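We were asked to recover a plausible sequence for a given structure. The inputs and outputs are reproduced exactly as logged, with field labels preserved.

PROBLEM: sequence recovery
POSITIONS: 417
GIVEN STRUCTURE:
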């Protein structure tokens, strides 16, 4: 084995792309395939070479790391520039040599220099990213709906609000989806923007997806004709004893109104032969179970952390969001990466916010990773004090933090990246 100092971490060049993708597939336990020149071009057309790192042991890539620009919606509807991190792998022959630490340090330093407010990622494993200052800022829940138990009228033939649901195809989704999603993103803390490529990938546009099974798509339009919801779903074909036991798997469902959500879930549960619906990843406080006369028909089958955030600029992060309550806090942030360490005085209220560095004693002492869990409003400072993760230096400061930071609905990120 080569010592770690002999392994070079650098941005990839054109000639490295095939080897980089092979290392990526190896790290994710996918077959290390070979591709034609055109397939390789299609698979790498979206990457930014200067932000795509590889660790090279000799001429072989043994670790991968990629970032790209992103907009993250915060409480109140503003968006901050984020460094979105993805495709992180280390080959099994080169673990525990500090390769991820080197790649992460290089990328975060570049993000700070660019002026990104935060870095974001979806963590495959929970224990990895806390040591780099990331904390889980949103969570997600998956339900399985037992359709016969919902209590819905089996004769349901469409929304009662004057809206309608129509089946559409991928080309329609590429036209209707981006504007609908942007309306959702502006109203949903934790949501991120979607590039055009997302819509191409998730509708199987030829030339960008090598293998594809076309799903079903349905659109909800209000009584006024406005597109307010879209769903992509698939179904199996499962019969026994001459009875259907089919499951509809939801790939994604987005809606900008509760009426659209209700109509799309009722539609899925009304499809002939469907006896179960798997919801895909939803907000942890999704309205879904309460749409049914019997909410127990929707059973939680998975719940997990989702979007992880690493705050790079405390002042801009705290000033970007809005605050329903009024109060003052001095936060002492501990940051081993030194991007966000310091004391900050937060004066916030419905009429505005100010966050400035200060030499005052901290009311709360917390790691930058725990600040990330509080920032979008999902976590409670009182809970973190009870867990020993936040130090309360002024009695009652944690309650003040909750009054300022927590939100009435939980943040949610609908995207995997």
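RECOVERED SEQUENCE:
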């Amino acid at each position: 084995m080569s010592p770690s100092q002999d392994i070079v971490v650098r941005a990839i060049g054109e000639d490295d792309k095939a080897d980089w993708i092979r290392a990526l597939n190896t790290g994710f336990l996918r077959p290390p395939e070979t591709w034609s020149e055109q397939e390789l071009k299609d698979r790498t057309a979206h990457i930014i070479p200067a932000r795509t790192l590889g660790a090279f042991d000799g001429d072989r890539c043994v670790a991968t790391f990629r970032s790209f620009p992103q907009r993250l919606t915060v409480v109140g509807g503003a968006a901050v520039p984020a460094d979105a991190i993805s495709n992180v792998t280390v080959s099994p022959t080169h673990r525990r040599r500090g390769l991820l630490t080197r790649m992460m340090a290089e990328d975060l330093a570049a993000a700070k220099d660019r002026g990104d407010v935060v870095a974001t990622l979806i963590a495959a494993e929970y224990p990895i990213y806390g040591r780099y200052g990331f904390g889980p800022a949103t969570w997600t829940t998956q339900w399985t709906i037992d359709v016969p138990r919902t209590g819905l009228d089996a004769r349901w033939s469409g929304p009662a609000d004057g809206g309608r649901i129509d089946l559409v195809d991928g080309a329609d989704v590429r036209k209707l989806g981006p504007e609908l999603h942007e309306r959702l993103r502006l109203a949903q803390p934790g949501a991120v923007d979607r590039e055009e490529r997302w819509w191409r990938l998730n509708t199987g546009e030829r030339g960008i997806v090598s293998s594809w099974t076309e799903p079903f798509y349905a659109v909800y339009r209000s009584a006024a004709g406005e597109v307010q919801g879209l769903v992509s779903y698939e179904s199996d074909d499962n019969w026994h004893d001459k009875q259907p036991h089919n499951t509809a798997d939801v790939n994604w469902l987005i809606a900008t109104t509760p009426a659209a959500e209700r109509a799309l879930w009722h539609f899925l549960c009304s499809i002939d032969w469907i006896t179960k619906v798997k919801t895909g990843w939803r907000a942890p406080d999704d309205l879904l179970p309460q749409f049914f006369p019997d909410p127990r028909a929707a059973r939680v089958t998975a719940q997990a952390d989702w979007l992880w955030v690493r705050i790079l600029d405390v002042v801009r992060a705290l000033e970007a969001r809005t605050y329903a309550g009024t109060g003052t806090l001095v936060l002492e942030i501990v940051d081993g990466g030194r991007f966000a360490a310091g004391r900050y005085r937060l004066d916030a209220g419905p009429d505005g916010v100010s966050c400035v560095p200060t030499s005052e004693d901290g009311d709360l002492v917390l790691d930058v990773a725990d600040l990330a869990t509080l920032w979008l409003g999902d976590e409670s400072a009182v809970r973190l004090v009870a867990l020993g993760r936040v130090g309360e230096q002024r009695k009652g400061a944690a309650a003040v933090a909750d009054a300022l930071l927590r939100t009435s609905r939980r943040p949610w990120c609908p995207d995997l990246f």
